[in-house]
Amino acid sequence: MQGVEIKELSVFEDERGWLTEIFRIDESGFRPVMSYLSMTKPGLVRGPHEHLEQTDYFCFFGKFRLYLWDNRPDSSTFQQHKVINTSGKPTLAVVPARIVHAYKNITNEEGLVINMPDRLYRGEGKKDSVDEVRYEDDPASPFRIEE
Question: What domains does the chain contain, in order, with CATH numbers?
Answer without folding.
Answer: 5-119 (2.60.120.10)
